Amino acid sequence: MTKRRFDKRTKASALRMYHAGVSFAKITESTGVSHHTVNRWRRDMGLEARPPARTGYDESVRAEAVEMYKIHSSDFVAEHLGVSRAAVTYWARRACVVPGIRERHYHAMERRERAVVMYRDGVPMQNIEAALGCERQTIRNWAREAGVPARAGNNLKNRTRA
Q1: Are residue 64 and residue 86 in the same domain, yes or no?
Q2: Cα 101 to the center of its chain, rounded Å
Q3: Phi then psi for 4, rounded to 5 degrees?
Q4: CA 111, 114, 118 angle in degrees (round to 5)?
Q5: Residues 129, 126: Cα–Cα separation, whole Å
Q6: Together in a domain, 141 and 106
Q7: Which three-class secondary structure state does DSSP give residue 36?
Q8: Tens digits of per-residue pLDDT, 55-97?
């Protein structure tokens, strides 16, 4: 591989951007100089490396997320704290808090509530089945448990003989 030669102005511009805190991606985009080259120039000139960029969240945010995750779903915690769901589950795993049943239970309850609301609103059963992947009888059971009256329809018990 042949070495590329950069003029003094490009070199100075790249180093100035580096010390101003500009990301390596932006430096490469604007000057065409890779981060390896910028770091080599910095070392050759005896300049200090800039402190690493602060990434992540405060420990207090992580601790709060883990505590909330013991009670709530990762979706709820992420939305409440303004972090990603992946971050919440990662922090919880590192703290040995296993989601397991609670996480599955949350999604099942959410599906159940949607089914009951759709049933109450008169959405046809086949549409509820298709939208939520539930059997008709399951939907009827959930609605009955929620106190929603049964729909009048093709129920053979309610028919009168002619």
Answers
A1: yes
A2: 19
A3: -90, 145
A4: 140
A5: 5
A6: yes
A7: helix
A8: 567 888 888 988 888 777 788 888 888 888 888 888 888 887 7
Whether the CB-CB separation of 125 and 142 falls below 8 Å is answered with no
Measured CA angle at 116 (ends 111, 138), to 5 deg: 75
Shared domain for 140 and 107, answered yes or no, is: yes
For 24-34, the pLDDT digits (tens) are: 888 888 899 88
8-state DSSP, 158: G
Q: How many domains does the chain have?
A: 3
What's the one-letter identity of residue 38? V
pTM > 0.85: yes or no: no
> Using CA atoms, how far apart are residues 131 and 143, in angstroms rounded to an integer?
16
- Parent domain of 32: 8-44
